[in-house]
Specification:
The chain is mostly helical and 182 residues long. The chain has one domain. It is built from seven helices and no strands.
Length: 182
């Protein structure tokens, strides 16, 4: 099979999976307050994860070079996630695909900028890592407790064994949340 057909089939499969993920997500996020809560906290969660990874990578002996960190986080992670955002963007929500593209370009770049600006002692690195972990846990907890248990009175899709949560829905949860704010 030629490469162009393989790429086309792969992109189509990703789009179809994104549609499935979007339908599952929208089915369990009916309350408008919960949709907006997720639209705000999921990007915070994702940015916290990116900053956490950037901070950890910056402390490894292999990535002491800020240029290497930029190449990995912005060039590889950010750009690939951004391009995938455009590939999976459905016709009904093109703005969410573009917004997700910008998020995935900006989040790793900002993370690298923050890490670069904060050349500091080891104890400060631990504080950054702990702060980002706490932000991630707080955002996740608020979504589950406030959004799902109180407002929706249901379990999040991750905890619901009847729903299939794909890797794509995890990596592009920002795009899914932003596509669902109606």
């Amino acid at each position: 099979m030629p490469w162009s057909k393989i790429i086309e089939a792969t992109c189509l499969a990703w789009r179809q999976q994104h549609e499935i993920d979007l339908n599952i997500y929208q089915g369990s996020h009916q309350e408008w307050k919960n949709r907006w809560l997720h639209a705000i906290l999921i990007p915070l969660e994702s940015f916290s994860a990116v900053l956490f990874v950037t901070e950890i990578l910056s402390q490894t002996f292999l990535l002491q070079s800020i240029l290497t960190l930029y190449l990995i986080m912005v060039g590889m992670v950010g750009l690939s996630m951004a391009m995938l955002s455009l590939i999976i963007a459905p016709v009904q929500h093109p703005w969410a695909g573009l917004a997700s593209y910008l998020f995935w370009i900006f989040a790793p770049w900002l993370s690298c900028m923050l890490v670069k600006q904060m050349q500091r002692p080891k104890t400060y690195s631990t504080t950054v890592a702990m702060s980002t972990a706490i932000a991630w846990i707080l955002a996740s907890t608020l979504q589950v407790v406030l959004g799902h248990f109180l407002w929706e009175q249901n379990s999040p899709d991750v905890l619901n064994s009847n729903q299939h949560v794909s890797w794509l829905s995890f990596t592009h949860s920002v795009q899914i949340a932003w596509s669902s704010t109606r």
